[in-house]
Design a protein that fits this description.
Helix content is about 75%, strand content about 0%. It contains six helices and no strands. The longest helix is centred in the last third of the chain and has 31 residues, at about 125-155. The protein starts with a helix and ends in a 5-residue tail after the last helix.
């Protein structure tokens, strides 16, 4: 029992550490003035890859829900692990892209890196809608990380009641983040290179 409690504390500390480090590292790499010098235009396809990953995550999350509702725990776990792996791939690709390329601005019709008053008039309220969706997507993607990790920990450590309580709120947020990731991509796609 003492060893189990010590193990739990170690895992919980790891979850807290990961939950703090991910947003800090991502923010540092995105906002650091110097960008990585990654050769090739292949880096420019990554936003589309992100949309595909988010779409697949939506599918695996929904499939996991259907599986558990039908009582298939094994299939549910497989879909949830697939969702987690997709999340890791997304994070790596996202950091690689944003640490290498300047962020695209919604409404930058002429691709000069700034949104002029004339461009703002042309895009109208769609920019505000985009920014609201993007802000909620980013904020919730940061907040959901520890809850996802705790949900996995509770499931893997057979604390099923705690797992159920955690996913009651975590699952819809994760699903929302994945869906809005795709929405944000399609909204800003016309302004890419």
């Amino acid at each position: 029992m003492v060893k189990e409690q010590a193990d739990n504390k170690v895992y919980l500390r790891i979850i807290y550490l990961i939950s703090i480090l991910i947003p800090l590292v991502v923010a540092f790499l995105i906002f650091f003035p110097a960008k990585l010098a990654i050769a090739g235009d292949w880096i420019k396809i990554l936003p589309g890859v992100h949309a595909v990953i988010n779409s697949l995550t939506v599918l695996t999350l929904i499939s996991a829900l259907v599986s558990i509702k039908n009582g298939n725990v094994k299939l549910h776990r497989s879909f949830m692990f697939a969702s987690l792996i997709l999340g890791v791939f997304f994070l790596i690709s996202y950091v690689l892209y944003h640490s290498s390329v300047e962020s695209v601005k919604f409404g930058d019709i002429n691709h000069d890196g700034t949104v002029s008053d004339a461009e703002l008039l042309k895009v109208g309220t769609s920019r505000v809608i985009y920014l609201v969706i993007l802000a909620s997507h980013i904020l919730l993607s940061i907040l959901v990380v520890p809850f996802v990790l705790f949900a996995f920990y509770y499931a893997l450590s057979d604390q099923i009641e705690r797992h159920k309580k955690m996913v009651k709120y975590t699952y819809p947020v994760w699903l929302y983040v994945s869906i809005t990731g795709v929405v944000v991509y399609f909204m800003i796609k016309p302004y890419y290179f």
